Amino acid sequence: MQQQVDAINDAFNPHGFRFNLRRLTRTVDKGWYRARYYWPEDRNMRETLRQGDKSALNLYFHPAFPSRSMGKTAVHEIGHWLGLTHLFYDQEPFQAADGSYADQYPKICQPGLYNLVLDVPACYLDEDLLGPDSCPYEEIDTCPDLPGKDPIHNYMHYTSDRCMTEFTKGQEVRMKQMYAYFRAT
Question: Model's pTM, two decimal places?
Answer without folding.
Answer: 0.84
